[in-house]
Amino acid sequence: MEEINFLVQGSAAEPYKASFIKDGDSLTAFCTCPAGVNGRACKHRIGILNGSGKGIVSENVEDVQKVKTWLPGSEVEEALSAVRKAELLAAAGKKDLNAAKKSLSSEDVENVQKVKTWLPGSAINEAQFAFAKAELLATAVEKNLSAAKKNLSRVMHG
């Protein structure tokens, strides 16, 4: 078993401790930041797993590359990949939603909430349909991203 610890400066006065443990094929990661303590994936661990030394205030920044080599073939790698994919989809969904919003007049934006109550086959204009579709897609993508992040947290905690 091998363990590497980093001190990472976050929003608190005192740096957080990000710990990575490699035990055979198993990789676990912990962080003392509020997100990490509450069982959520945090930017400190994800950054280090992505090979970034940003925010590290301990003297072992070079160990980031070693931790990164522990990732391939682990459950954490698979979960992190799912988070990356979900983040890309979320960004694209937000872009589509913003474009759809811009294409609507203010009256259409107020009325588009009615789309959810309209019966299938009702006549709605193309902009309203695009907005409703983008809104629903963005909601689904955000749920997928949230689920991917929860899974990443579960996998990192072993």
Write the layout of secondary structure elements.
Blueprint: E1 2-8, E2 16-23, E3 26-31, H1 34-37, H2 43-49, H3 63-70, H4 75-102, H5 106-111, H6 126-156
Antiparallel strand pairs: 1-2, 2-3
Q: Hey, roughly how much beta strand do the residues contain?
A: 5-15%
- Walk across the major sheet and give the strand order: 1-2-3
Compute the number of strand runs: 3
SS class: alpha+beta
Anisotropy-based shape: elongated
End-to-end distance: 14 Å
Portion in helices = 40-55%
Domain unit count: 2
Low-confidence stretches: none
State the order of secondary-structure elements, H for helix, E for strand.
EEEHHHHHH
Number of helices: 6
What characterizes the major β-sheet? Answer: 3 strands, antiparallel
Which radius of gyration do the C-alpha atoms yield?
21 Å
Average residue-wise pLDDT: 82
